[in-house]
Amino acid sequence: MDFSGSEPVRGPGEAELLPATVAAAVKVVVVGGFGVGKTTLVGSVSEIRPLTTEETMTEAGVGIDDLAGVERKSSTTVAMDFGRITISDQLVLYVFGTPGQERFWFLWNGLFEGALGAVVLVDTRRLEVSFDVLGRLEARGVPFVVAVNSFPESPLHSLDELRGALDLPPHVPIVECDARLRDSSRDVLMALMRYLYELAAQPVG
Amino acid sequence: MTNQDWEEGGPERFFVITRGRDRQQDAAGFDLVTLIIARSRPEPTMQPEHAAILRICGSPLSVAEISAYLRLPNSLVIVLLTDLIAAHKIEARAPIPQAALPDLSLLEAVIHGLQRL
Q1: Lowest CB count within 10 Å: A15, A113, A149, B85, which one?
Q2: ipTM given for this complex
Q3: CA-nearest residue of chain B to A140?
Q4: Which structural domain, as residue segments, surrounds residue B81?
Q5: Is residue B92 part of a domain?
Q6: Structurally, how many domains does chain B consist of?
Q7: Cα–Cα–Cα angle for A170, A176, A182, nearest 5°?
């Protein structure tokens, strides 16, 4: 059985099956400019081969084009890579890497709703791309940590310098990482979880 | 549906799959990470997309994974899942609801799980 003559649907492989006991999932979102290493980070921590999900959006929903007089809405497909980490036999964590075009991140219905938090992946060669993202996350009340992906040709900055350049509040963690390495990417997620834990443990003021 | 005069993955094809239903009216309640488990076997009379979902959901799969394996947009998959829920063919396990801040024990569990990676 196939769809309209396309190739048959291939499901998860044996090694990619979740235990039937998994009762719930949580998600985090990795945001960052094009080429900053989001897909690399997702791939290095994921226990499954990273997958791609997509959403169609009408240009009207995207809200960037002047549609006056346009009869037919055109649709845009936005793809997003994601990976998975089984936390326990009850709980699974999904890590979503947002698409490269900044304008789509916050239009994807339900992407940030219910997310535990976000990782803003920063390329020090292109810091300016990050400002818009940081502002939007703050406006939405999504807690986040900043991870600086080290590229060989990146200019050397101290984390303090970067914090200043990004105008990050003192409480927001900033960490260095190498998104190609599993341990390093894992540590970024740990930094986010510890930060969320601190936030959640604070007495309500 | 052998005579394909529309673009693969184009809006016309999606319209046919969902029989023209608006995604919004059915979208309530499903998140990207809602877990889906088949509660029934695929049947030959089913729409192929419904059958495919039942076939790959023998173990829990998130809505996002189903979208990836079926190569269909997320919101369209949600329409299909809504049909299957109504027909009692699948079970949906909702994500842990997020209050303003997550539960400490949940975060502890995630931290513990990541440490074991």
Answers
A1: A15
A2: 0.85
A3: B100
A4: 11-115
A5: yes
A6: 1
A7: 135
Euclidean distance between CA atoms B13 and B48, whole angstroms: 13
Chain B residues close to A24, C-beta within 8 Å? 35, 93-96
Q: Which CATH architecture has domain A19-66+73-201?
A: 3-Layer(aba) Sandwich (3.40)
Residue of chain B whose alpha carbon sits nearest to that of A52: B68
What is the chain A residue with the closest CA to B105?
A197
**Do the Cβ atoms of A23 and B101 come within 8 Å?**
no
Strand partners, A76: A57
**Can you give the pLDDT at residue A71?**
45
Interchain pair B64, A53: CB under 8 A: yes
| Top-confidence range, A68-82, A122-136, A181-195, B94-108 | A181-195
Candidates B55, B73, B98; nearest CB to A11: B55
Angstrom distance (rounded) from CA A36 to CA A123: 6
